[in-house]
Amino acid sequence: MTMIVLYPTKKELKDSIGEPLKYQETSMFGNEYKFNGSFCGCNRPHLTGFKREFFARITMADGKISRVE
User: What is the number of structural domains in the chain?
Assistant: First the structure.
C-alpha cells in the first residue's frame, strides 16, 4: 500500500528536500515510513482535499527527505 503525503503537488514535495516528511500512514500491517530508506507515497485528493493526484518514490536520510522521484 502507498502512504499519503500531505503536499498539494509533487513540486512542493520536491521543494521540501531537507525537511521532515508530512504524511499519513494507511497500512494496517505496520508503518511504511522509514527513517532511512525509500518508499512510495501519493496524494489522494478525496482524502487530503488537495486538487492534484500524484505518486512519488521518496528517499529519506536521518528522518529528512533526501530525494523525490
Answer: 1
Distances (CA, A) of 40 to 4, 12, 34, 53: 9, 16, 11, 14
Q: Give Cα separations from 2 to 25, 32, 41 (angstroms).
A: 8, 8, 5
Give Cβ neighbours of residue 2 (< 8 Å, ≥ 6 apart). 26, 32, 40, 41, 42, 55
pLDDT per position as a tens digit, 8-46:
999 999 999 999 999 988 888 888 888 999 999 998 876
- 12: domain range? 3-68
For CA atoms 25, 56, 17, 33, the dihedral sign is positive
